[in-house]
Design a protein that fits this description.
The complex is a heterodimer of chains A (492) and B (140). Chain A is mainly alpha-helical. In chain A, 77% of the residues lie in helices and 2% in strands. Chain A has a two-stranded antiparallel ribbon with strand order 1-2. Chain B has 140 residues and is mostly helical.
Chain lengths: 492, 140
Amino acid sequence: MREHLPALQVVLPLFGALIAALVRGPVAAWLVTAIVSVASLVISVVLLRQVIGGEVISYHLGGWDPSIGIEYRVDIVSALILVLVSAVAAVVAPFARLSVAAEIPEDKVAWFYTMYLISLAGLLGIAITGDAFNAFVFLEVSSLSSYALIAMGTNRRALVAAYQYLIVGTIGAGFYVIGVGLIYMMTGTLNLTLMAERIADIELSRPILAALAFIVVGISLKLALFPLHVWLPNAYAYAPSVATVFLAATATKVAIYLFARYVFSVFGRSFVFADLPLTETLLTFSIAAIFGAGTVAVFQSNLKRMFAYSSVAQVGYITLGISLATLSGVTGALVHVLNHALIKGAIFMALGSAVFRIGKCSFEDIAGIGRKMPLTSAALVLAGLSLIGLPGTAGFISKWYLVVASLELGWWWLAALIVMSTLITLAYVARVVEAAYFREPSKALADVTEAPAEMLIPTWILAGATVYFGIDTQLTAGLAERAALVLMGGIQ
Amino acid sequence: MRLDLILRVATKLILPFMLLFAVYVQLHGDYGAGGGFQAGAIAGAGIILYALVFGLAAARRIVPPALVETLVPLGVFIYAAVGVAGWLTGGNYLEYNHLAHDPVHGQEWGVFLVELGVFITVSATMVAIFYAFTGRGRSR
């Protein structure tokens, strides 16, 4: 069975989704989701342990050779993303039962879990596959299911948000597949490893340049790079709480993984960053994201929407690290992929608990929540501090790597900008603290009590992790550095 | 007297041939154009035609929504289960070589079963989408 783990990693959530759709009972569907999520985590950890020393697992789907068939390829980079996605899913699963029951009509609960598990299968699939077209299929699998997840939000605006995301996401996926088509035309293969080998000789041919442009823009839409982020705030703000937690923590991260795979492993660092001005372009948009989206976040009245804009800004830090194309830069990007997933997971879970008790989460609704729901608010603030990058929290580690990377290049102005941007994050987190602790609870909050343990424990697992990984960086930064090494060296 | 007599008679006449053609496209997929997706679309269109002419209620009596909602995941389930059968018989996921006594027959069986799954899901999905649109604003 051990040699089939790469296939099982994707097939298990898929089967889980089908069983959830066939049983149709809300509790049974949740149980399937919980079991599948935990089992996925176990599989991904086993896979990570197998590849941690630099080995690569290659699994030939259907027994076909990678040159004509689909290959699943697990190296330390993909294993890291697999663990991240399945770990988030495993933590979200116990949280989901009450939150979903409160927000989704009973006859749709099983469909919600079906879509959730299909989305999980798609995201894991993107991370594990070594085939460009298969990655497109999984991209669509995860996206289509997430449109459905978002559309199930209680507010009717969720429908518009999902539709907007559908249009933009389809354009993104369309661009991606055009790029893949052009590369296929020039190299005659869809396998990423073989593409990388064959592309080196024909780098500067026009179709390859066009392919690079299409793929970079297409995936940038998916990862919500600054001017292409418009779909994200509404999608996160109006989606059901559980969907927001899961998508915010995983979906953009997997797109970032795919982006890094293409620019570093397929096209190659020297081509993309030395021959072409991707560093300058990506850096400009990243800084615009950090400052632009960060500033917009400060002026939001809905907390979910505010932290959605904050996600756009945080993606900016990750793409900033990638754009530097140095070892510390990419390490910083990868470590922030992990840290930001934990931070945003904790924040949106805390907001989900608030929505569960109060029903809404604008600043007026949560005024004085610190007295009514002390543990939930504390988790929110803790994760917020980590988002700012307070020393001793996970966010500090990411920013440290990014600052070091810019100083290594002699770009002190960039280091200064990164440090300055912290003030913007501080501004909007401070607003949350002010509303939660320094305002009198409104009458609507009179009989609000602390969130149930079922929701509190997963929230605190993630909030605690943001502190733990700020002190013990062996697991996150250590792994990210190894992964960055593998990524920068190309696919072996 | 109803004015859609011609439509009703023509539909009754054409429907069996449509469904038979769906089966033909399904089974002939190995040798020519066709396969589970096309056959599923034809079969789904047959049911939709019936619903258009004889009304949604009549179609729902023949193909109840609960059945449709079971068939959609069932088809994918068959597909995925064939994949698992691949590794239970000693190959990789979706490897059909060991499903029968020799690889050629194994591939044939594998593709046949997978296409059956595709047929079920595609036809059921088409009907489900049709039901969802036409059922808007009506109580079930």
